[in-house]
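Notes from the 1:1 (GR / supervisor)

We went over the backlog. Supervisor wanted to see one worked example end to end before approving the batch request, so GR pasted a single chain during the call. The sequence is below; no edits were made to it. Supervisor asked that the structure be written out right there so they could see what the output format looks like.
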Amino acid sequence: MAKELKSESEQNEIICTGGKFEMRVIAGTARSLRLKTPEGQATRPTTDRIKETLFNMLQPSLADAVFIDLYSGSGGIGIEALSRGAKHVYFVENNRDAAACIEENLKFTRFTQKATLLRQDVLSALPGIHEKEADVIFMDPPYHNAYEQQVLQMLCSMPYVTENTLVVIEASLDTDFSYLHGIGFCLEKEKRYKTNKHMFCRIL
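Structure output shown during the call:
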């Protein structure tokens, strides 16, 4: 998922045609290709500016990486990871229209063979991922529903989440993460923007 557009400059980074926003892949093998997102407010695409900042920080972790994109929306984050060198991406999205967009975007960018789409609720999907180790797990759940803590607690028990796994959470600025240490995670870095933030965590 991603955030509502807040400024004219941010709006200029996305092209809207026929009721659908088209976002572009910023860098890598699929650079500049435009991605579809579903109509309506079910997903809120992350602006290019924030996505570029995020991936500048993630780039050292992406080569041949196993990347898990939770609450995938239209798949823009996971596809960016594939474009920048990830080996395989798991997309988890239970919204029908959003999942259909992920499929279309994967075909268009020719990443279908490097992707697994799980059309499930995140908590149901996590045990079905069978990897020795995940390199990066990204999640952008709906705001103000406390999903972050539920997912992090489950991730603690997943065998593919190790001390090497980087967990990145996109959340509103007022989301409380004071519980992280208590459930077994440490905060490595926090990046704040005007309306949201990225939290970079690892398991203790």
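Supervisor's comment: The radius of gyration is 16 Å.
Batch request approved.
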